[in-house]
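Appendix B. One record, verbatim.
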Amino acid sequence: MEDVSLVKIGGKGVFIKEIEEALLKNEVDIAVHSMKDVPAELPAELEIAATPPREDPRDVLISAGNRMLEEMPAGARIGTCSLRRQLQLRAMMPHLNSCRSGVISIQGSGRSRRRVLPA
């Protein structure tokens, strides 16, 4: 499911719902998930038992030629799977809204996302 947008498959809740169901059916004993995807209210039978210290929350830009975001040339394409980041980039860099350049949705792990960069 790495190549499908979360928006198209039902949003972030699709993953937590599957985890909750497995816990409630006793198919798993414990689940680990990103807190950003956990809803404000859980089923009464479930609880958040632990939260480890947060790691560095900053985003990372991986670019061909080690360019900074501000150094992206005209016609650049920037890929992200985050709708929030897509909107932020378009607001910050209006030239990315043209059909030849732009912010494109890419899915998958960090490794698969790096494969789309030119060598």
